[in-house]
Amino acid sequence: MASGSGKRLSISETSELTDVPTHVLRQWEERFPQLRPKRDRANRRRYSDDDVAIVRRIKELLRQEGMTTEGARARLEQEFRGGRIPASREEARALLDEIQADIRAILNKLDNT
């Protein structure tokens, strides 16, 4: 079954599509607030394309990047807020320099008022 159709998928279809067991999907719903599939009138989970993308991202963070559940939850939270995470020390230093320059600019404006 292909994602992208706009059709909501059952938990078993989502499991098959993402290669994540259904019991793990249920656990992730409890541990990751970003993963909240809607429920139908019979109270069955229905995963949207966005939900499937979140499942894939959680799987990537946990299994490929080797993050803990807590670390993956924090990373997802930052990604949902649009925060960026430096990938290296150099990138972190550049980000700090950028922040410092912004602070100096704000202080200069305050001094000039």
Number of strands: 2
Average pLDDT figure: 89
Largest sheet features: 2 strands, antiparallel
Give, in spatial order, the strands making up the sheet with the most strands. Answer: 1-2
CATH topology tier name of the largest domain: Multidrug-efflux Transporter Regulator, Chain: A, Domain 2
How many domains? The number is: 2
Give the overall silhouette: elongated
* Rg, nearest Å: 20 Å
Terminal Cα span:
61 Å
What CATH first level of the largest domain would be assigned? Mainly Alpha
Encode the helix/strand succession as letters: HHEEHHH
Helix content: 55-70%
Number of helices: 5
Main structural class = mainly alpha
Strand fraction:
under 5%
Compile the SSE list and pairings.
Layout: H1 11-18, H2 22-31, E1 38-39, E2 45-46, H3 49-64, H4 69-81, H5 89-111
Antiparallel strand pairs: 1-2
Helix pairs in contact: 3-4
